[in-house]
Amino acid sequence: MPGRGKVTIERIVDIDPFPLPLGLLFPGASLEALGEHRTTLDGAHVDWANGTILLAVQSHLVRAGGKTILIDTCVGEHKQRPVRPEWHDRASTRYLANLKACGCTPDDIDIVMCTHLHADHVGWNTRLDNGQWVPTFKNARYMMSAREVDERAGEAAAKPQANHGSYQDSVLPLLERGAAHFVETGEEIADGGKILALPGHAPGQIGLELQSRGNATSVFCGDAIHSPAQVFRPEWSSAFCDDKAQAVATRRALLERAAGEDLRLIPAHLRGSVMRVRAGGNGFSPVIEP
Fold first, then answer.
1. 14, 38, 180, 283: which has the highest count of C-beta atoms within 10 A?
2. What confidence tens digit (pLDDT) does each residue in 249-259 have?
3. C-alpha dihedral (113, 265, 273, 22), degrees to nearest 10
4. Is residue 2 part of a domain?
5. Tens digits of per-residue pLDDT, 58-70?
6. In a domain, 45, yes or no
C-alpha cells in the first residue's frame, strides 16, 4: 500500500486510570515476573503498591483519507451494569465533552469501528432517548465483524445478561436500524486504512492498519494487547479472553511484526498515545510515547 496523506489520532478518554488487580486481569501472573521491568512500567502502567494493572477506557479519534473515524466507544451512560459498579448507570460523564474538545461532535463521525463487542468497547454506540436506545453517531456507519455479532447474539440468546447485557442496549439497536456494516479482513474502510483479523481475545476481534504520509504505519489492535506488561510477557492472556491460546498466538505475531516493521501499536486500553516494540535477547520490550 503506497504512502498516504496526513493522519491525526487523538484519545477520547472515558475512564483513566482504570485499575484492575493483576491476578484478576492476568490469572496466575505475579509482580515478581515483571520486577526487572519496573522502571518501564511503574506508575503509568503498574501500581506496585496496590498490585494493579493501570489501563484506560477510551476511544481513538482518527482523521484520515477525508474520513472521521471513532474506534471503540467505551462504557456509555445509563447502561445497566450492576456487576461492575464503576460502569453502572453512569450519567453526566465527560466523554462527549472530551470529543468536543477535539473539535468533533457526534454528527461529525463518519465511521464507528468496533474492534470487538465487549461492554467497555460499545457503550457509546447508543444513547437513551425517550426510553429508547438510538445511535449516538447518527451519520456514521458502525463497522464490526459478522463473526463477533453472531457470537454476542448467541450469548445473549442463551443468557440475556451475558457481557453485561450490552448486546441488547449497544449492538442490537444498530442492527435493527440498519446502521451496522460487516467488514472483512483486508477491507479498506478509508484511504490508507484496512481491516486486520486479530482473533483470540474475542472470536471476531478486528484491528485497523493505517498508513500515513512517510509510510508510517499505525495499528489499532483492540485488546490483542491490554498492557505493556504483555509485551514483556506475551504468554499472559487476560481472564476475559475467549481463546487464550489463540490470543497468545495473535499477540506474538503482532509483536514480531511490530518489531520488524517499526509499527506504531495503539492498544485500546494503553495509557499513552503509541507503543513501539523492540526485539532483543529472548523477547520484546515496549517503547511508550506519551
1. 14
2. 999 999 999 99
3. 90
4. no
5. 999 999 989 999 9
6. yes
**Using 50, 70 and 90 to split pLDDT, how confident is the model at 91?**
very high
Q: Is residue 3 in a domain? A: no
Place of cell 489463540: 246
Distance CA 90, CA 271 (A): 22
pTM score, two decimals? 0.97
**Quick check: 137 pLDDT over 50?**
yes
- How many Å apart are CA 223 and CA 159, to the nearest integer? 24
pLDDT at 282 over 90: no
H/E run at residue 40: helix 38-41
The domain spanning residue 181 has which CATH number? 3.60.15.10
Range of the domain at 265: 8-289
Is 12 domain-assigned?
yes
Whether 222 contacts 115, CB under 8 Å: yes
If phi over 0 gives left and psi between -120 and 50 gives alpha, with beta otherwise, what is residue 205?
beta
Residue 130 CA to its chain's centroid (Å):
29
Helices (H), 57-183: 95-101, 119-122, 146-158, 166, 172-176
Residue whose C-alpha cell reads 521491568 in the numeric block: 37
Domains: count for the chain: 1
